[in-house]
Amino acid sequence: MVACSNDSGTPDSDNEPLENLPELSVTDVTGAESVPAYSSILFKIRVSKTPNVDISFDYTVIKVAAEPSVDFTEKTSQAIISAGSLTTEVAIEILDDELNEVEEKIELIISSVKNATIKDENGFGIIKDNDDASFGADGYVNQDNFWL
Ligand SMILES: [Ca+2]
Ligand SMILES: [Ca+2]
Ligand SMILES: [Ca+2]
Description:
disordered N terminus; elongated; mainly beta; 0% helix; 45% strand; four-stranded mixed β-sheet; binds calcium ion; 148 residues; single chain; Immunoglobulin-like
């Protein structure tokens, strides 16, 4: 049977039987607020080996420690890893604000996978803050002392 559980996707066989489908994983990523208001955080979804056919899946992005429509834009859609490719990227919009904050966290979850199996169905995205501590909006006391 298959022995390589930890390989980096080396294509070592050609025509896979169905039970040997590639395995999908979502990787964790880091992004940051940036000026002007919009930037992206790029989740990478990779397969364990080069697929012979297109792999499709649904994904959705939810909050873990962040506010939808304030810190990021929620998104649910579908993506494809084309035959012969090992990865695809999903861009999630990061919204800038003027608050000095701790790191925020979102999560991407995949489902309804076709032509692959799921090894790691979710990945976390860290959004780094880009604001100074000096003056918080609406009386929000800055938390910079935690980091000093
Ligand atoms: Ca924010
Ligand atoms: Ca900012
Ligand atoms: Ca901020």
